[in-house]
Amino acid sequence: MAVLISGGGTTLQNFIDCIVAKKLNARITLVVASKPEIVGIERARNANLPVFVVDRRTTEPGQFSARSLSLCDDHDVDLVCLGGWLSLLKIPPRYTGRVMNIHPALLPSFGGRGLYGSKVHQAVIDHGCKVSGCTVHFVDDAYDNGPIILQRCCPVLDNDTASALAHRVFEEEKAAYPEAVRLFQQRGLTIAGRRVDVKTVLGRGL
């Protein structure tokens, strides 16, 4: 698998920790960063993972997605996982159903361009929601729009701050994203329009 990052790399670190703990039978063969000098690059190097930077600011718009996914081709990647990747990725046919993202809200609410990180959690609080959570979905050519694989929920408390809610949501993300990867590995996911059918695989469901 490849992990694409734009910031602190907490999702990348979760994958690394799950693999080391043998909770996820996967291998990260590539990390792609959309800008240099981010904490996520340091996390990747600390884990001895190959890292490449495709700088969004200096790459021609029409070449950004192609260059990022070309690196995945070069490393024989089966699955691409976006982990805090903040740029729109154009998905060519060969990667349909092979690129996942996780969003820190229950899509289709609180998603789309400009809604990421603490902005999502503050929007959830400001709207008066009683629950939030995370959504793992396949990626298409629009922000936070692809078919939903799975979701996990957590409460929004009356005195929540964006930071406190983010911590609670991330605990759900740490379970949800590896589970989606396991289902992909076991061929337990079938896309049918907007739906992702999740099969019970090897005697386990969600």
Give a written overview of the molecule.
With 206 residues, the protein is α/β, with parallel strands linked by helices. 32% of the residues lie in helices and 21% in strands. The strands form 2 sheets. A 7-stranded mixed beta sheet has the order 3-2-1-4-5-6-7, sandwiched between helices. The protein has a two-stranded antiparallel sheet with strand order 8-9. Helix 1 crosses helix 5 (162-185) and helix 4 (118-126) packs across helix 5 (162-185). The radius of gyration is 16 Å and the shape is globular. Mean pLDDT is 94; it is low at 202-206.
Mean pLDDT: 94
Output the number of helix runs: 5
User: Given the helix and strand composition, which structural class is it?
Assistant: alpha/beta
Shape: globular
The largest beta-sheet arranges its strands as 3-2-1-4-5-6-7
Q: What about the largest sheet? A: 7 strands, mixed
Classify the helix fraction into a percent range: 25-40%
The helix/strand order is: EHEHEHEEHEEHEE
Distance, first to last CA:
22 Å
Q: Whole-number radius of gyration? A: 16 Å
Strand element count: 9
Strand content: 15-25%
- Low-pLDDT runs of 5+ residues are 202-206
